[in-house]
Amino acid sequence: PKRIRTLDLQAAKRRGERWAMLTSYDQYTAALFDAAGVKALLVGDSAANNVLGYESTLPITVDELIPLARSVVGATQRAFVVADLPFGSYEEGPTQALRTAVRFMKEARVHGVKLEGGVRVADQIHAITQAGIPVMGHIGFTPQSEHALGGYKVQGRGSDRDKIMADAKAVAEAGAFALVLEMVPGAVTKVITSELHIPTVGIGAGPDCDAQVLVWQDALGLRTGYLPRFVKQYANLAEVIGEAAATYVAEVEAGTFPAEQHTFSAEVPHPPGQVP
Ligand code: KIV
Ligand code: NA
């Protein structure tokens, strides 16, 4: 199968074809999502919350995210794989941003990187794309700045609309090949999507984006408890896994697992090809 490229994702926009993106942080989900037709996979810094158990995305490091990204790339044949640049690995300027992006390209062999921010990181996006590395932008609610934004809030309402439009244009002009819009009103998304030549990828941004992205543990129901309004659960993996684990425990405790078919016999096997 042929690897999906940025040009394919952009051609889809021109043809009016939508595409789906999911996060992935390991080889099994990566292979399953790739086979299911997920066009792009994001090794998000949301691995901080969803794999490593941190309370936000801020603590995760480049060294923690690179091995996860490598496992996703290695397990896919078609999907375009993007890794997030973690908080603190690109804010200092274009030199730091390019150095981090190059590490992801060389050590994880991802196909592009994503970073958060609009006008304020345009120089970083420019430097990375000039080096031949595809960049996905990310504006609206940007989790790495949750403390500055005052928590998980919709962005781009009212007079903030001008700011988000300026951010979208800055990201596109700096050379990004696609742009994530997170927690942006549907009407604002619609204008950005029609004004930009690059695909928009929505999460909590309504139906008018060119593509959609969700965190896989949210979409497949592995995460329980509070879920943001923009999540739809396509399965209940928490229930499936919880019940299977409880059945295993019960069978071990009852002595019904392992059974005979799971047990090796003491007979010496005949070497292959030799008539017994
Ligand atoms: O890290 C992540 O999962 C993301 C998506 C939610 C866009 O950045
Ligand atoms: Na992220």
TrEMBL record:
What UniProt keywords apply to this chain's record, in alphabetical order?
A: Cytoplasm, Magnesium, Metal-binding, Pantothenate biosynthesis, Transferase
Family stated for the protein in its record:
Belongs to the PanB family.
Subunit composition and interactions: Homodecamer; pentamer of dimers.
Reaction(s) the record says it catalyses: (6R)-5,10-methylene-5,6,7,8-tetrahydrofolate + 3-methyl-2-oxobutanoate + H2O = 2-dehydropantoate + (6S)-5,6,7,8-tetrahydrofolate
**Chief localization:** cytoplasm
Give the HAMAP family listed for this entry: PanB (MF_00156)
Q: What is this protein called?
A: 3-methyl-2-oxobutanoate hydroxymethyltransferase
The source's superkingdom equals: Bacteria
Q: Name one Pfam family in it.
A: Pantoate_transf
Lipid metabolism recorded as keyword: no
Give the EC number.
2.1.2.11
Alphabetized InterPro entries for the sequence: Pantoate_hydroxy_MeTrfase (IPR003700), Pyrv/PenolPyrv_kinase-like_dom (IPR015813), Pyrv_kinase-like_dom_sf (IPR040442)
Where does this protein act, in terms of pathway?
A: Cofactor biosynthesis; (R)-pantothenate biosynthesis; (R)-pantoate from 3-methyl-2-oxobutanoate: step 1/2
